[in-house]
Amino acid sequence: MCAKLVVLGSINVDHVIQVPRFVKAGETLSGSHYRIAYGGKGANQAVAAARLKAQNTQVDFIACIGHDDIGKAMKNAFAQDGINVTPIRQIENEMSGIAMIQVAESGENSIVIAAGANAYLDESLVEEQAENIRQADALLMQLETPLAAICYAADIAKQHHTKVILNPAPANTLPQTLLANLYMITPNETEAEILTGIKVEDEAGAARAAEKLHHCGVQIVLITLGAKGVYVSENNQGQIIEGFRVTAKDTTAAGDTFNGALVVSLLEGKSLTDAIRFAHAAAAISVTRAGAQPSIPNRAETLDFLEKQG
After folding, report:
1. Where does the record place the catalytic residues (predicted)?
2. In sequence order, which residues have a C-beta less than 8 Å from that of residue 56 and are 6 or more positions away?
């Protein structure tokens, strides 16, 4: 039986430059290794899901590109990765979204985005794809596209028993109606604090934040804690699941890789713990490589990494 994942989200052209450290206000800093790569949180997660899925899983991508050559090139690249790109809309007289990314020597990144065509992923486009969402086993979304459309898609999904997974990034406050429709939410520490008002500095803080999100109606809360792993809570029963230690080169898209890997692993019928371990492995590989989508591993690489880890 084929499982179906629908990803709804952004597509960006990433302009990436290596810097010794993040630039300060009013400062000019010399960078190096400038490059252009395909990105956007929605696109990254769709690519991760497509590369890491089992053969019997289908990945559809609802998104928008501009009326430009690079938008067309990105759409073609998604198709090459095995994504169903039929739902992607080209927006006339608009550019594709862009992201300006600094990558420091520490491996950390700093990102500024301009929405471009992503701003056109509205409720009318979601309505066009309503049947696609209804037929899906899971709907994976982020917050780089208009919130009203995200809420509408979640409504459609919940009404038809499609599990809604939200990666709430970039960080923002969210309406209770959206939270009540979520099967799973995957914030990092900063996003969890913005959502709940609770500072997440340790396991106790993560537990309090998770409890608050459970009270809002979210079934599974998964708070990513960077090098410490993730805090996962289901029915107010929580634990930290550690990740893998690697030397980070570039953390761009690590979280997106984790989310895409997590959802397709769950769709295979893996336990939550095993799905998180698989997602940890994929994310660990991604941070050892430069770029967003170029850093995302495939399924065979990830399974090999897990086997070597024991």
Report:
1. 256
2. 1, 2, 3
Residue 239 pLDDT greater than 80, yes or no: yes
> What confidence tens digit (pLDDT) does each residue in 44-78 have?
999 999 999 999 999 999 999 999 999 999 999 99
**Binding-site residues, please?**
12-14, 40-44, 144, 188, 224-229, 250, 252, 255-256, 280, 286, 289, 291, 295
Annotated binding site for K(+): 250, 252, 286, 289, 291, 295
**Residues identified as active-site:** 256
CB 230 within 8 A of CB 276: yes
Count of CB atoms within 10 A of residue 124's CB?
10
Q: Per the structure block, which two tokens stand in for 146?
A: 């208009």
pLDDT in tens, 71-111: 999 999 999 999 999 999 999 999 999 989 898 988 888 88
